[in-house]
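User: Hi! Is it possible to get a structure for several chains at once, not just one? Here's what I have:
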Amino acid sequence: MLPDPNSLAGPLDPAPEAGWSEAPPRMGFFTDTSVCIGCKACEVACKEWNDVPASGLDLLGMSYDNTGALTANSWRHVAFIEQPRPAGHRTPPFAGNPTDGTTSPSSAAVGATTANPVGTEPGVPPGSPEAAARMAAGPEFLGMPGAQPPGRATGPESRSDFRWLMMSDVCKHCTHAACLDVCPTGSLFRTEFGTVVVQEDICNGCGYCISACPYGVIDRRKDDGRAWKCTLCYDRIGVGKTPACAQACPTESIQYGPLEELRERAAARVATLHERGVPEARLYGHDPADGVGGDGAFFLLLDEPEVYGLPPDPVVTTRDLPKMWKRAGLAALAVAAAAVAAFVGGSS
Amino acid sequence: MSSEHPPVGDRFRRFRDRLDGGLSGQPAGQTDAGVTSTPGRRGGRRRGGGEELRVPEAEFTSYYGRPVLKPPVWDWAIAAYLFSGGLAAGSSLLAAGGQLTGRPALRRAGRVTALAAVAASTGFLIEDLGRPARFHHMLRVAKLTSPMSVGTWILAAFGPAAGVAAVAEAASLLPERGLPGLARRALPPIGQAAGLAAAATAPALATYTAVLLSDTAVPSWHEAYRELPFLFAGSALASGAAVGLIGAPPEQAAPARRMAVAGAALELAAAHRTETRLGLLSEPYRSGRPGRLMSAARALTLAGTAGALVGRRSRVVSAISGAALLAASLATRFGVFHAGVASSRDARYTVVPQRERLERRRQAAAGTGD
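Assistant: Yes, the chains can be modeled jointly so their relative placement is included. Here is the combined structure:
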């Protein structure tokens, strides 16, 4: 059987491509960040159900985000972004008041230089102080509260329009999953639901998936040396249950279901938000024609993806693999030719 | 895990101390530069002379300045493997050439080095696993989409062949009579066959490691996929040639000298392209520690090649030149390795090129729409 011309990139139904016959419909998450309240119930439910180890407790200086990033020990991560602008769909309560930051860019710069030792590698590595300071001080971004939480100071002159973006991030379960493509042991596999799961009894911790993921999701535990990530609760969905995070979400920000249905629902939700005066609402990862063939877990965002720490245009690295092998083949020929020429040519 | 975790609030207290201390952790003005920078300002040029200054940043948005990607978990062992794998490939080619053209010194040095290097390679690769005892899980599957799986099988073919060829070199040490005498007569032909088998696999071993790095989301590795195979090919040839320069008398080392020139030319050209043709993503190859390593590699390659040509009658000069070429290959591999790691640690290298790609696509769409 010839491989699908889209087997490395392009629109595709991944489960049949992986060899599943009579696969059930592809399942996924639609995370609507416009109704996320930042309660972190998803993070807790995921840890509880999947027995994910604790990742320590400390304050990162990143608003109410003290998780920092998706890691082997945090399979859901709620991001918090504070912005000095009205939350579009209602009357700005402080219209006319100053909207410049009450926060200190220097505190953001210091905060970015701290790593978070969550028991995994690379875990939550430190970031760039300049970029963090710019996020905190720019005309658009308050960034983090620094020593003073927002709203602590009193008096009308200290008030400003303010919106809080919250987003529960998770493994994207890509149509073209680089982690799965590059796994040299077959530990990562495609389930009948089109999701991507690590088999912990196979993984030998080579770390290739970690470098390959365009979203920086998968990560390795220090104590056991293996890679871990969201399984989309393979054990639950196999018996018709909803994944723990979606089950726990009190606002239905996290929705679980057949991907086709979720995509329709998401398109309708964006249309509704646009109608209500939230023109910045946009979908992320919903398009089967994007660089990873569409995500099994996609999002409704209220700002650019990189504001939430997501890559703006991710591409599965294996899309270019045929070209890479060709270049390597040419280089190998050059090696052989050079060696032959060195021994055949001349007699000095 | 809990034992190594600091007490609750520890990081916040340190954070507060550093704020009170007026950002003692950073040079004054550094954050100001980030704050006051105007949109549209582009970085990219290094200021000053020898001392590395931070390049002014291209404008981009990030989540608290944190990297988008997870930096590779691979440590020095993988960079060392890039070198030792290339050395094994280069020296087995040298050995095969010596074998076929009747230069026993080249053959012997090449075979012994190939075995030592491939053994070290295997050690490095296993050492770097999170679960070293499960290294054999690599042999469960053969996947073309996983360069690491392809490399496993290349090593599985190369290693035993190189091993047998090297062991055959010990034939002359065996007594001439009895069972050892039989082995003494049987080993050389077996060694010839094994040496040729190893050399046949060597070009693949020398170049697949470039795909291993490029087939990742690491920006400066991925975008260098056109250049890295040739860079690694040149580096492998030069290091193999170095073994001949060190291990063989000058009258047998002529092919090694020619191999050194070819390898050095390939390495220098490919390195130059890597450092200049990738736009923003070339920057990690030129700045900081990777930049210093790449510069050192260039200087050592030039010195080693020149020494090999000028000192063609001197065993000592040849050996020193060989050592310079080996050091150059090592520096190249560590330079490339650390440049990629640096590019994955900074959100700028992830976000800016992707933003530019989106912008180009938007403009192209607008252009066709008119």
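The radius of gyration of chain B is 25 Å. Chain B is about 70% helix and 0% strand.

User: Great, thank you!
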